[in-house]
Design goal:
Largest sheet: 5 strands, antiparallel
Helix content: 40-55%
Number of strands: 24
Number of helices: 14
Strand order of the largest sheet: 4-5-6-7-8
Radius of gyration: 43 Å
Distance between the termini: 153 Å
Length: 632
């Protein structure tokens, strides 16, 4: 099938899918108007008296109740290994995903999604590998963008992303971007979907609508076809497979506009199922894959679209919209509010004077009223007419309460004064009950992020060829710098062939909400310290561990306290070492003193023995002299 036939085929599919999705698209515009506080109201009256009337003023309960549910926390990734030897790989991919959360603008995307999702019933993430983002040492970066539901057209009557045969994404692009990105001149083209990225139908000569179709090919891979009006931009049967630009003349790999080997500018893209290792790879189990080994490229084969639903609804691609639930109450409040305003403005004071009386009108403060008869003075009076709006106010409060109850939002959850909660504990319990009713929405958010992290991880393993730096913490809370490499996920199958294994379980960390609430974590750590969970609170090592944790939670001054505790422990250790050396010296001196005393005793004993021997010698000499004297 050539490109022309492909274009006609996918244009027909797009027209069919969009026509069957128009009902939901029109509701999206209506829901957005409610969120922005439209003054338009449904028809009032019956029969010939029916008329359309705008509200005088709007109390926007749709915006108020949706804002009350905004959750700024981003569920953190949790990756679980299915086998023990893959634990290190699970840790590496989890740390890499956390770094991607910091690199990408997830705070902005989450803030937008927290309002779009309950308003429209859902929102979408769009994951792509941007090969045009390059540095001196890396090629490509992971890209995650937010899609409004009106920018996505699903296959008719199919409600799960992975079950669809095809889907469409509408993106507003500038003509210069299309020229730079696809090398296609579309200066004469015009914008077909003028509200693809906004509800305001404003056209521009500098913009066009790029329609992207993702489809499942015959081999189970993911194809991509995109166009602007009748100009084809992309046509890939499997856009996730690896391709390489080569020279048509010599077959060498080409990285730029021409071949470095022969200088030819004639190039073509060819499929590359395998890569040849340019260096030795050491696996996590210690085995080494030698340079020159052929490794089959990993292909994700997953759609790059992830949907987040507000509340699940049977037979619907998106979830249930909060606006759809409470729009009747919003309309009733607009009517009642307009009625109250009309009653208040039409009321006022009336001045009665006798018929024929004349009032001098001038700039003086004192006004003169000319009466024909003194008895007419009794006819001068002022009447104040104030309409009764108490029933309208009560009804408006009732409608507001109905809207809150339908969404499960209490006064305590909104941070307002709750007359039913007579204590702090009761107020906390009331807020927890409301959070319990809204737990379904949080579950849908966590489920969406779990799927998103899986798609992100598979794209990283498939396309991230160079090692990437990541930062995490060791067991002591100190920064740990390491590298993420797709080759960490290489394994050897029974046939002796190496392959990339992505058999991991992806979910979200249930403690993410508490972990993101720093004040709550600070309080929790202080309580653990006082209760002895870290050890003896008076032990400097316990305090050092405590301040290390507080520093990781960004507690003000925790870093200085940690250094002081480290210096204190170091000083105490030095003093202990010095004391030990003193004790050893004293022991040596004691030993030396004892040896000297023993030597002195031995010397004294030797002296006594010498004196005794000398005395014996004297006696012996005298005895010998006597003996010689007698013989002589």
């Amino acid at each position: 099938m050539n490109k022309t036939k492909n274009l006609k085929y996918w244009q027909d599919k797009f027209s069919e899918a969009k026509s069957k999705y128009d009902v939901r698209l029109s509701k999206m515009e209506e829901y957005d108007q409610y969120l922005n506080g439209t003054k338009a109201m449904p028809k009032i009256g019956k029969g010939n008296a029916t008329k359309v009337q705008d509200a005088f003023t709007v109390r926007n309960i749709v915006y108020e109740l949706i804002e009350a549910q905004v959750d700024n926390s981003i569920p953190l990734p949790k990756v679980t290994a299915t086998k023990e030897f893959r634990t290190e790989g699970a840790r590496k991919i989890e740390n890499k995903l956390r770094c991607e959360l910091d690199r990408l603008p997830f705070e902005y995307m989450n803030d937008t999604q927290e309002r779009v999702c309950p308003t429209q019933g859902g929102s979408l993430f769009w994951v792509e590998w941007d090969n045009f983002k390059r540095t001196h040492t890396t090629v490509g970066e992971l890209s995650v963008k937010l899609l409004h539901p009106k920018q996505f057209i699903p296959q008719p009557s199919i409600f799960e992303i992975e079950e669809m045969d095809y889907m469409f994404v509408l993106v507003t692009q500038t003509k210069s971007y299309i020229k730079h990105r696809f090398n296609v001149d579309i200066d004469k083209e015009s914008e077909t979907e003028d509200n693809a990225n906004t509800f305001d139908k404003v056209t521009s000569d500098d913009k066009v609508t790029q329609i992207i179709c993702y489809f499942r090919n015959d081999k189970g891979g993911i194809g991509k076809f995109s166009w602007v009006n009748d100009t084809v931009l992309e046509d890939f049967e499997d856009y996730q497979e690896r391709k390489q630009k080569i020279c048509k003349l010599c077959g060498s790999d080409v990285s730029g506009d021409k071949c470095d080997a022969c200088g030819s500018k004639k190039t073509e893209m060819v499929r590359r199922d395998y890569e040849v290792l340019q260096f030795d790879i050491t696996l996590s189990n210690g085995k080494t894959i030698p340079r020159g080994t052929k490794i089959k490229h990993y292909t994700p084969n997953v759609y790059p679209i992830v949907v987040r639903r507000n509340v699940s609804a049977f037979g619907s691609f998106l979830g249930k919209s909060d606006v759809e639930v409470i729009k009747d109450q919003q309309d009733n409040i607009k009517k009642l509010n307009s009625t109250i305003l009309e009653k208040v403005l039409t009321g006022g004071s009336f001045f009665t004077v006798p018929k024929g009386a004349k009032i001098r009108t001038n700039d003086e403060n004192l006004k003169v009223l000319e009466l024909n008869d003194p008895a007419d003075k009794s006819l001068i009076d002022v009447f104040t007419i104030q309409p009764d709006i108490s029933k309208d106010m009560s009804m408006m409060s009732l409608e507001y309460e109905i809207a809150r109850q339908e969404l499960g939002i209490t006064d305590s959850f909104q941070g307002r004064k709750d007359p039913t909660a007579t204590s702090g504990k009761a107020k906390e319990f009331s807020a927890a009950q409301s959070a319990g009713r809204l737990e379904s929405k949080r579950t849908m958010k966590s489920a969406c992020y779990g799927v998103l992290y899986e798609v992100m991880a598979k794209f990283l393993i498939a396309f991230c060829d160079e090692p990437r730096d990541i930062i995490t913490e060791d067991n002591d809370g100190n920064p740990l710098f390491e590298e993420f490499s797709k080759y960490d996920f290489l394994e050897l199958d029974e046939a002796g062939e190496y392959y990339f294994n992505t058999d991991y379980l992806f979910s979200t960390d249930v403690s993410a909400t508490l972990a993101n609430n720093r004040e709550a974590m600070w309080q929790e750590m202080r309580m653990n310290l006082t209760q002895g969970a870290f050890g003896d609170p008076a032990d400097p090592n316990t305090l050092l561990f405590f301040w290390q944790i507080m520093e990781s939670l960004h507690y003000p001054g925790a870093g200085k306290m940690k250094k002081q505790m480290q210096n204190k422990i170091q000083t105490e250790q030095q003093m202990a070492q010095m004391q030990q050396q003193i004790d050893q010296m004293e022991q040596q001196l004691q030993i030396s003193g004892g040896a000297m005393a023993q030597m002195q005793n031995e010397n004294a004993q030797l002296s006594q023995k010498a004196q005794a021997l000398e005395a014996d010698n004297v006696k012996l000499s005298e005895g010998i002299g006597q003996m010689f004297g007698m013989n002589g």
